[in-house]
Amino acid sequence: MKLTVNGAVHELDIEPEMPLLWVLRDELNIKGPKFGCGIAMCGACTVHVDGEPVRSCSLAIGDVEGEVTTIDAIASDDTLHAVQEAWIKEQVPQCGYCQSGQIMSAVALLRDVPNPTDEDIDDAMSGNLCRCGTYPRIRAAIKSAAAMKVGA
Amino acid sequence: MSEQKTKPKRSRLRKIARRTFLIGTGAIAGGLAVGYYFYQREHPNPLLADLDDGEVSFNHYVTVAPDNTITIIVPRAEMGQGVSTTLAALVAEELDVGLHAINIEHGPASPAYLNQAMMIESAPFPTFDRSFSAEGMRGVMEVVSKYLALQVTSGSSATIDAFEKMRYAGAATREVLKQAAAEKFGVPQSTLATENATVTDPASGQSATYGELAASAVGKAPPADMELRGRSEWKLLGKAQPRTDIRKKVTGMPIFGVDVDLPEMLYATVKMNPRLGGTVNSIDAAEAEKMKGVVKVVPIESQTGNGFGVIANNSWRAFQAAEAVKADWGSAPYPADTDAITAKLKEALNGGEVSSLREAGDVTTTFADAPSDNLVEAEYQVPYLAHACMEPMNATAWFRDGKLDVWAPNQAPTILQDICASTAGIDGTDVAIHTTFLGGGFGRRGEVDFAIYATKLAMAADGKPIKVTWAREEDTTHDTYRPGAIGRYRAVLDDAGHPKALHATVAAPSIMASVLGRTYPSLPAGGPDKTIIEGAYDQPYEIEHYRIDAAKADLAIPVGFWRSVGNSFNPFMHESFLDEIAAKSGKDPLALRLELAKPWPTATGVLQKVADMAHWGEPIPDGRAQGVAFALSFGTWVAQIVQVKDEDGSIRIEKVWCAADPGEVLDPGIFKAQMMSGIVFGLSSAVGQEITFADGMVEQSNFHDYDAIRMNQCPDIEVEILENAAHMGGAGEPGTPPSIPALANAVFALTANRVRKLPLSNEVDFV
Ligand code: FES
Ligand code: FES
Predict the structure, then answer these.
(1) Claim to verify: residue A106 and residue A124 sit in the same structural domain
(2) How far is the CA of B472 from the centre of ligand 2 (A)?
(3) Same structural domain for residues A66 and A107?
């Protein structure tokens, strides 16, 4: 089967029920998406399929229809994505383990809702767990990214 | 199937312990500068073994390459608490290099880094074990135990430990580079200046980079009377610095243990008896071994658990195959369900055998003489808790040619080195521990189980590297839990409603005995354990008759250090009880604390500060209420006020104010982030977390039934720092303890429901 990840096409001979996360991490060595729970409860594995955020731990590779984008490819060369810049500005991460997923969820949110309210942020981000409790800074970073007009 | 049999080697603990204690005494008794030299003499520089061409190292913390690449070693686990920024800044401040112009590395596991912080980590075991208090050690023990009040795991003590030592390392390096420059320029050293990794002579206009000077500076001795820069001269310290690890963490870089990638690497998982510590009756792996990508199933017997590992060519295939193995698990060495476990705690509580760490006045007589109208009594209970680090437990091991490499997100590299060596039956010098970034630690990664299993599987992997990742379910059900505990509190009030006597007995299993038992099973583990009552016996409150007793419960469920350890439950009990006293006597809860803490201005300072921040006592909008709590832990004095709001019958945690006094703060940005993190961690547990048992097994398995606060539940958090405390306190843990009682007290203020048993959501609803 064919899988397009971050613009590159991969030819894979793999059981269709393997979750996308493990294809990315263990077969393609794309390590941006992290493993947290395996049951779509934490968001650490969030990637985009055709721009939509999905939990890659719970999406079988056989069901992937579209192009996959991971955190590894949202920056272009040396220029970070505006959401990543906002994350740096607000010094969001602590351990950092959840942050790939947080950022991928935030990128999708800001594309759909350029000026999210607190409620929009709650709705889009509550599936992403952070055991280090960085939520207040994530909220601030989303607002600061919105102010930089990343959605426009 | 293949069977792993290894003969454990004799533990090195005794030797390590003796050495660390001696270092501790030298540094403490002899003054810090002496400590630096003592330390340098005692341990050869481990960096010398692994330098690049032309690169030189002046001490344990600094290397300089000819192209002026400066590397600073931060030999502490980065688990989010910012050590790789703050500790590097200690060296950089004296060395005059930019924090973002240098490399920061964890460095090798080496006894050279077994310094005071490591002493604090390794010392608790013998300290609480009377048989270890041998002749001649008592004096040392006294010094050690003073330090123990600060911390047991590395998080909250890392900065305290490094504060002098790493600044001296920076200063010493700078001075020898200046000596080399003085010779090269032919000028007196006193005219030289340093900046941006360069020595300049302003008078002659000559300059040379550290890289250009390094080779000729080797072997020079720094002056004996080297003085550290004063606070007023600091450029980096004392100010919020951008974290040095941040770019890696927003770009998804492979920095964690789960991200390790090696040539021809195999992937594995483990499944250990869910009746923790139980044996394995039988394993049938026939089906599993036929599954796609499965290499083999390997039985594991070890000091931390019994079960099996599955080696495959993909983690998910290993998970699937592990599910397909049919295992008949032996029974648990502890009561099978939560009720029976609670009964054991009660038995200890009522059993009468206690050790007291605070005894003032005459509690017995005061209670005997007290009129019953003046009594307040309450019983509190907290559940077992899992750490639930975001990154599941994992380790990668490679055993080849009699040598072992282990990559692991861990908090105790030298202990791992020791244990992995004995697991593999080789010498510690043949084991290299590579510490990755940690996706959360919270005390869990000071354990050794993940490394033991990886070592055993690596020995069955025919010389190939093997990455062992636990499924979340395995992680949740095989933790080293925060113990459950029950506390019985009673007080006698005088006629003005002031507590003149307070007596508490707290029953819990011993964390120290549990940790020591599984880490070094051959050593005896007895004696009193202060973690049972820490956060209760050591609080800055003055009460005429005051006694806090610890009752050790005999329960074999593995328990361990969970962010703030005993402080994670004792302040919940003690501070809830102070509120109950206030309610009985009609006093304001904050005023009562100010009264009791009067002899300690640092305590009243943070209480007053947080009251100002929250406008305590002033009218607030309808349907809202505030609760206050205080805790002194790990040397940091913290008061918090939680504001809750009634939202259609559910409680929203709307706002948290926090005033913290750790004495000197080296990075206020990172310190505040740590407080915030500790608060969310504490509130998460208070709201909804509990680990329960049935049939000897943990009932919770993943984030659907062991959740934490999420974005939509997270309060606004405001943190202010005071710097009045006389000694430097920690940052990683002290935010957690007061958050739990402050929330319980706020819930009481809002609902008049005094919840004495955690988690609160068993009795009240949260949004
Ligand atoms: S790993 Fe996919 S949601 Fe947790
Ligand atoms: S930063 Fe550690 S889990 Fe979110």
Answers:
(1) yes
(2) 16
(3) no
Q: What pLDDT shows up at residue B606?
A: 98
- Asked whether the beta carbons of residue A131 and residue B389 sit closer than 8 angstroms, the reply is yes
Q: What is the pLDDT of residues B15-40, one digit of tens each?
A: 322 222 222 222 222 223 333 444 44
CA B693-B695-B696 angle, to 5 degrees, is: 60
Contacts of B767 in chain A (CB under 8 A): none
Cα B270 to chain centroid distance, Å, stands at 25
**If pLDDT is split at 50, 70 and 90, which confidence band does A17 have?**
very high
Name the nearest CA neighbour of B563 among B76, B80, B20, B21: B80
Query: pTM for the full model?
Result: 0.91
Shortest-distance ligand to the CA of residue A91: 2
Q: Measured between CA atoms, how close is B692 to chain A, in angstroms? A: 20
Whether the pLDDT of residue B11 is over 60: the answer is no
Q: Tell me which DSSP letter residue B437 carries.
A: B
Instruction: State percent of chain B over pLDDT 90.
Output: 77
Predicted local distance difference test score (pLDDT) of residue B575 = 98
Tell me the nearest-neighbour CA distance from A137 into chain B, angstroms: 9
CA pair distance B9, B455, nearest whole angstrom: 14
* Pair A65, A93 in one domain: no
Q: Whose CA is nearest to atom 4 of ligand 2?
A: A130
pLDDT, greater one: B592 or B5: B592
Helix, strand, coil percentages, rounded to 5, for chain A: 40, 15, 45
Got the DSSP string for B222-238? --TT--PPPGGG-SSTT
Q: A88 and B714: CB-CB below 8 Å?
A: no
**Domain annotation for chain B: domains and CATH numbers:** 12-250 (3.30.365.10), 257-332+393-469 (3.30.365.10), 338-385+481-762 (3.30.365.10)
Q: Does residue B34 contact residue B332 with C-beta atoms inside 8 Å? A: no
pLDDT at B116: 52
Nearest CA in chain A to B81: A94
CA distance B97 to B456: 43
Q: Classify B257 as helix, strand or coil.
A: helix
The mean predicted confidence, pLDDT, of chain A is 96
**Are the Cβ atoms of A96 and B255 closer than 8 angstroms?**
yes
Chain A residues within an 8 Å CB radius of B673: 91, 94, 134, 137
d(CA B102, CA B72): 7
Q: Which domain holds residue A55?
A: 2-73
DSSP H/E element including B602: helix B601-614
Does the beta-carbon distance from A26 to B267 stay under 8 Å? yes
How far is it, in rounded angstroms, from Cα B716 to Cα B731?
Answer: 20
* CA of residue A91 relative to chain centroid, distance: 18
CA A44 / ligand 2 centre spacing (Å): 9
Atom of ligand 2 nearest to the CA of A95: 2
Dump pLDDT digits (tens) for B135-155: 223 333 333 333 332 223 344
Residue with more model confidence, B160 or B434: B434
Task: Give the number of domains in chain A.
Answer: 2
Closest residue to A133, CB basis, from B441, B676, B707: B676
**Of the residues A50, A73, A96, the one at which a domain ends:** A73
> Is a pLDDT exceeding 50 seen at residue B123?
no
pLDDT tens digits along B635-666: 999 999 999 999 999 999 999 999 999 999 99
Describe the strand order of the beta sheet including B650-661 as a list of residue ranges: B624-633, B636-647, B650-661, B716-721
Q: Is the pLDDT of residue B622 over 90?
A: yes
Q: Which of A42, A73, A104 is the last residue of a domain?
A: A73
Of B583, B717, B9, B444, residue with least CA distance to A138: B717
Indicate if A17 and A56 belong to the same structural domain: yes
Residues of A in contact with B733 (CB under 8 A): none
Distance between B409 CA and the closest CA of chain A, angstroms: 11
